[in-house]
Amino acid sequence: MISSTKLVSSPGGFRWLQLAIGIVCMAMIANLQYGWTLFVDPIDAQYHWGRPAIQLAFTIFVMTETWLVPVEAWFVDKYGPRIVIMFGGLMIGLAWVLNSFATSLVMLYAAAIVAGIGAGAVYGTCVGNALKWFPDRRGLAAGATAAGFGAGAALTVVPIANMIAASGYQSTFLTFGIGQGLTVLVLAWFVRPPHGVEAPRKKRLNLPQSAIDYTPPQVLRTPIFWVMYLVFVMVASGGLMTAAQIGPIAHDFKIADTPVSLAGFQMAALTFAISLDRVFDGFGRPFFGWVSDTIGREHTMFIAFATAALMLLTLSVYGHIPVVFVLATAIYFGVFGEIYSLFPATSGDTFGAKYATTNNGMLYTAKGTAALLVPLASIISSQFGWQAVFIVAVALNATAALTALLVIKPMRRAFILGSEGTAGATIARAKPALGENHLLETPASYDSLKKTP
C-alpha cells in the first residue's frame, strides 16, 4: 500500500551524529572484504588448501553479503535499525572467531556465510538509515557512509598485517573479530530512525523526489527499477572485474614490478595502483554523491560512467605504460565507486523514504549479479587477451552513461510526477467525504484511498 511521507522540520545536528555512527559501523565491517587478502597466504601456509579453495570463501562472503540485504533491510523497515545492526555486530564478531578456529574448508566457508550475513545487515542498514535522515543530501550521505567501508580497511590493514606477522593469523582473527563486533554492538544502541523526513527544497529542480512511499512489491513492478538495476549491473561488472584481476593484468602487461614515481613517491606499479585505487575510490563516493545533490543524479551518472569508459579505453591502448596504468586505474576507481552512493540516493528519491532500506537493498543485489559475470573476464582474456575484456567494459560503461541520461532521467521524472498526480487526484476526490481537517491531521487515514499506479 502506498503512503505519503510525513514531513517534518530539519532535525539539525542529530542527523549528522547518526551519519557518523553509520560511517564508523561501516568501517568495522570493511576488513571482512578488504582485509581478507592478508589472511590467504598464512592460511595456505598452515593447511595447504590452495589459494583457489581459500578464495572461494571470499566469493561466498560477497554473494551472501549482497543477496541477503533485502531480507535484512525488510527487518529494518519493520523493526528499526538498532536491532539489525546489533545482530550484524554479533555475526561479524562470530565470523572471525570461527575463522580463528577453522581447521577445515567447510568451517572456513561456514564462517564466510556468517560474515556475509553480518556485513549485509550492517551495510544495508547504515546506508538505508542515511537515506532516511538526509532526503535533501541523499547523495552525500550515502556516499560518505559507503566510503566508510573502504576507509576502515585503510586504517587497519597495517595493524592487521603487523599482528599476523607477530602473533599469527589465528590470534589476529580472534582479536579483531571481537573488537569489531563489540564496537558495532555498542554503537547500535545509539542508532535511531527519523520519525519523519525533512521536506525537500523545491528549488532543487535537478532532484525530483517522490512524496509517495512505495512498498518493495510495488517497486519490483515498476519498469524504472529494472532499468536502474540493469545499469547498475553493467557498471558494477566492469569495476568488480578490474578489482579482481588488476594483479594478473599488471603481470600480463609485464609492468607489475616496474618502479613508478609520482608526487615524490616511488613504488612498484601494481602496489602504487592498488594504493591509489583505494584512496580515489574512498574519495569518489562522497564527492560524486555531493555532485549529484547539486546537478542531479542522472547528469552525475553520465559524467562518471563516461569517464570510466574513457579510462578503460586508455588502459586497453596504453595500459602497458606503467605511469598510465597507475593513473588510469586510479581515476577509474574514483568514478566507479560512485555507484554505491548514486544508486541508493536515486532509489530513495524515486521510491520514497519509508521503505528506503529494503528498496535500496533490492537494488544492491545488482552487485551480486555483476559478480557472477566477473569469471567471464578470465575466459575472454584467455581467448582474445585483456584488450578485448577492456573493450567489452568500455561498451558497457558507455551504454550505461547514455542510458542514464536518455532513458532513466525521463522515465524517473515521468514516474514521479505521474504517480503523485494520480494520488493527489484520488485524495482530492476523497476530501469531501472525510473532511479537510481530518485528512490533514491523520495522513494515514487515507492511505487506503491511494492505489498502485
Fold blueprint:
Layout: E1 3-4, E2 7-8, H1 13-29, H2 31-34, H3 37-47, H4 51-67, H5 69-79, H6 81-101, H7 105-133, H8 138-167, H9 169-188, E3 197-198, E4 212-213, H10 216-220, H11 223-252, E5 259-262, E6 265-268, H12 269-295, H13 297-318, H14 322-336, H15 339-351, H16 356-373, H17 375-384, H18 386-434, H19 436-441
Helix pairs in contact: 1-7, 1-8, 1-9, 4-7, 4-16, 5-6, 5-7, 5-16, 6-7, 6-9, 7-8, 7-16, 8-9, 8-12, 8-15, 11-14, 11-16, 11-18, 12-13, 12-14, 12-15, 13-14, 13-18, 15-16, 17-18
Structure description:
By secondary structure, this protein is mostly helical. It folds into 2 domains: 13-194, MFS general substrate transporter like domains (Growth Hormone, Chain: A); 210-422, MFS general substrate transporter like domains (Growth Hormone, Chain: A). Helices cover 78% and strands 4% of the residues. A two-stranded antiparallel sheet has the order 1-4. A two-stranded parallel sheet has the order 2-3. It has a two-stranded antiparallel ribbon with strand order 5-6. Strand 5 (259-262) and strand 6 form a beta hairpin. Helix 13 runs antiparallel to helix 18 (386-434) and helix 17 (375-384) runs antiparallel to helix 18. The longest helix has 49 residues, at 386-434. The model is unreliable at 1-10, 199-205 and 433-453 (pLDDT under 50).
